[in-house]
Amino acid sequence: MKLLVTGGAGYIGSVVTRMLLDAGHRVTVLDDLRTGHRAALAPDATHVELPVHEAARVLTPDAGFDGVLHFAALIAAGESMVHPERYWHANTVSSIALVDAVRAARVPRLVFSSTAAVYGNPVELPIPETAVKAPTNTYGATKLAVDLVLTSEATAHDLAAVSLRYFNVAGAYLRDGLAIGERHDPETHLIPIALDVAAGRREKLQLFGDDYPTVDGTCVRDYIHVADLARAHLLALTAAVPGRHRIYNLGNGSGFTNRQVVDVVREVTGHPVPVETAPRREGDPAELVASSALARQELGWVPEKPTLTDMVGDAWAFYRAHVLGQS
Ligand SMILES: NC(=O)c1ccc[n+]([C@@H]2O[C@H](COP(=O)([O-])OP(=O)(O)OC[C@H]3O[C@@H](n4cnc5c(N)ncnc54)[C@H](O)[C@@H]3O)[C@@H](O)[C@H]2O)c1
Ligand SMILES: O=c1ccn([C@@H]2O[C@H](COP(=O)(O)OP(=O)(O)O[C@H]3O[C@H](CO)[C@@H](O)[C@H](O)[C@H]3O)[C@@H](O)[C@H]2O)c(=O)[nH]1
């Protein structure tokens, strides 16, 4: 297929781009590098340095794209509570412009990066796709809005749409000397920050809140390996059906508290990783754990690296090689 990948210079988009190219697809990456890295761009993909809202300049009716995978977004839930307008523009307004371009160019399929953050504090665990959607942060709300746009678009205009609701993505894609991993700047995610501490780049980790209604008072999250997540996108591309908007949760179905995650980082790195308790981060739901039964059933998705030790181990291997330059 000829595919447009938005956000292909970012963490997840660059892993998926690599897998798409290796599977024989032709890929154009649309990314304005606002948070991504030029070095993460696949050398055998075409790169167009444009913002998503200008996608129509690339997605012309003559260009012959078979599909779009839409990763480009602002992703920090905490920041979205402080600067919500940035999130509505970057995530929702831009996505509507992209969907307009997809319709105008008659691109048949679109796969969208949705999120566990659409659910808010869940009333049932593990969370199925049918659960109540009540986001506790603006980031989740901006993504839920795009999911709703895609449902109408699929129904009214025959788009084959798939939303993949990722839970917490971790790890790195390591293969034959290649390593693609997480490099957000500034970093806000728990595992890479804990690795910064293990590497001696930060003194300690702040744990945001220890009074949540969970086993040790810290938030619970469900982690998914970035390579397992990436494979789900290739499956979704072929499973997409015209006129349908399919939605799949992607996680492993096991919850880890933030303290348990830090324990795994200590085991993997051999570093004590000191922590201090800090106030809650606004907008954080207490617990997010996925039911991915539907993805397993309908996409035939089976995670190959479901353990947190594997994820942290791969993230640490990437970190040492590419952030500390110890390869
Ligand atoms: N990382 C996670 O744990 C996680 C979990 C759930 C969902 N997601 C979703 O997955 C997607 C990818 O996340 P990531 O961790 O790879 O993020 P990332 O920040 O590493 O990558 C995002 C990429 O999109 C580009 N970009 C952002 N806005 C753009 C715009 N308007 N125009 C052009 N380029 C733009 C950035 O330059 C960057 O390269 C996002 O949509 C995010 O919401 C991520
Ligand atoms: O220095 C830190 C960083 C994070 N946390 C906590 O660790 C947990 C996980 O936080 P983080 O790694 O930032 O991920 P989330 O906020 O859960 O969000 C991620 O996972 C969501 C899906 O669950 C996605 O939608 C988001 O894009 C992605 O950033 C939360 O309780 C945070 O408060 C800390 O205690 N200290």
From TrEMBL:
Transmembrane segments: none annotated. It catalyses: UDP-alpha-D-glucose = UDP-alpha-D-galactose. GO terms for molecular function: UDP-glucose 4-epimerase activity. InterPro entries: Epimerase_deHydtase (IPR001509), NAD(P)-bd_dom_sf (IPR036291), UDP_G4E (IPR005886). Its cofactor is NAD(+). It comes from the Bacteria. Pfam families: Epimerase. Pathway: Carbohydrate metabolism; galactose metabolism. Keywords: Carbohydrate metabolism, Isomerase, NAD. Its EC number is 5.1.3.2. Residues 4-251 form the NAD-dependent epimerase/dehydratase domain. GO terms for biological process: galactose catabolic process via UDP-galactose, Leloir pathway. It is an enzyme of class 5 (isomerase). Homodimer. Belongs to the NAD(P)-dependent epimerase/dehydratase family. This is UDP-glucose 4-epimerase. It comes from Micromonospora wenchangensis.
